Amino acid sequence: MEMIVRSLAERPKSVKELSEELGVGWKTCYRYLKSLQRIGVLVEIKTRGESLFMSRRPYRPKLLTVPRVRVGETFEIVDAKPPSDDEVEVLT
To answer: pTM score, two decimals?
Structure first.
């Protein structure tokens, strides 16, 4: 299904165009398109001769998300020797 969404991000396409591009039968392609339309990923545009499908929003690859780390306002010095000014980084 991701290949369908990626392909439709370029421009609206008909079921026939998509099925030929992806190498699947048109009935299978149509069922995938309808299920993607039901969940809100695709939009169907009905023209006189055919139905065109297009992506609701441009395709963006999934990004790896890294959780944010909150820095507390207090800290504890574990080392007995206080650090010099060269070793301390001021965070703002």
So the answer is: 0.58
